[in-house]
Write a structure and sequence with these properties.
39% of the residues lie in helices and 14% in strands. The chain is α/β, with parallel strands linked by helices.
Length: 346
């Protein structure tokens, strides 16, 4: 390929092509190209994927910008710091607050519209393990800072995120979120695209501001969306709506997302925080035993797997837990129940 007498070195073209193929490491979790800040490269999207201003592969300088920068070696691995009800992760752009029985995970990278770096994907599973083990946390909210939920995965770190099919960082994080044993709710403002939509779909419930926008964008990059994420989308939306999003890679508004089942509630932007706080306070006041049993049985039913054994096990847990006795006593005494069950009895 030549332009103005200058020919692109074949090794450089091969490198760019390899990086494009490596995009499957993100499990379809790319930011939508028209969201200008979401790619975090020194220029427009990768040439050849339909970007309006994508450069021709005409020089080594043009292609250099698409070689991902490795994670800085000075970055420490995630480490949980506790104090005053606030947990943060050392030098990773995620913060966690816990209050009144509700944990809030905030993707806190607003300058990048909360695009997920490799370190952030890697941090989520141990963070979720920590919250699952905390008896004071009865429900978890996942949200984003600065007016956006998450605009996708950071395309500048493809090499760091790439692994074999079962250990993609995005897939591991998505599965950890879906398997979290307590109720989870995504509180969504602004862009929820690519990897952001992947995370939201892994939550039990999704509430959004009326101005939010959603998209599942692998078709803009020539990526085959991973089987696990596709199955989750089909279970959530049904085959037709899942194909609509995956075929078109278009962004849809909150009203459309509500109509197809991607969202559970849409509220005015100024009321989202209050609505989420009120709903999660309700969740935290209910029986966690009931919620955990419901989550396991409903998820199994949605996946088409048998539920009889799980139901039998949870009925035995219920009988030994004292939850029913407390619920009945509270009803008869006309008071709020004080459910104390937090984990299965061994």
């Amino acid at each position: 390929m030549a332009r103005g007498g200058e020919e692109t070195p074949p090794p450089r073209i091969a490198e760019v092509r390899r990086r494009c193929l490596d995009s499957t490491a993100l499990q379809g979790g790319f930011a939508f190209p028209e969201v200008d800040d979401c790619f975090h490269v020194a220029g427009p999207p990768v040439a050849g994927v339909g970007g309006r201003r994508a450069p021709r592969l005409a020089s080594a300088r043009a292609t250099d910008r698409f070689v991902p920068r490795p994670l800085k070696t000075a970055r420490r691995p995630p480490r949980f710091l506790e104090g005053g009800g606030l947990r943060t992760i050392g030098r990773v752009d995620i913060r966690v607050d816990a209050a009144d029985g509700v944990g809030t995970i905030t993707i806190d990278r607003p300058a990048k519209r909360n695009a997920m770096s490799a370190a952030m994907w890697r941090a989520l599973p141990p963070l979720l393990d920590d919250l699952a083990a905390d008896p004071g946390v009865r429900a978890v909210v996942l949200t984003g800072a600065g007016g956006n939920f998450c605009a996708g995965a950071d395309i500048s770190e493809l090499a760091d995120i790439h692994r074999d099919d079962e250990s993609h960082l995005a897939t591991v994080a998505e599965r950890a979120l879906a398997a979290f044993p307590k109720p989870t709710l995504a509180a969504i403002e602004g862009y929820c695209v690519g990897g952001g939509c992947q995370l939201a779909a892994a939550c039990d419930l999704r509430f959004a501001a009326d101005g939010a926008r959603f998209g599942v964008t692998p078709a803009r990059l020539g990526i085959v969306y991973p089987a696990a994420a596709t199955e989750r989308l089909v279970r959530l939306l049904g085959p037709s709506a899942a194909k609509y999003l995956l075929y078109s890679a278009d962004l849809i508004d909150a009203a459309h997302a509500l109509r197809i089942g991607l969202l559970d509630e849409v509220v005015p932007a100024e009321g989202l925080r209050a609505r989420v706080a009120a709903f999660t306070a309700t969740l935290a006041s209910r029986s966690l035993l009931t919620q955990r049993a419901t989550k396991e049985i409903v998820d199994a039913a949605a996946a088409g797997t048998p539920t009889a054994d799980a139901a039998k096990r949870w009925l035995a847990e219920m009988a030994a837990s004292g939850e029913v006795e407390e619920g009945v006593a509270a009803f008869l005494e006309r008071r709020a129940p004080a459910f104390r069950w937090t984990s299965p009895i061994r």
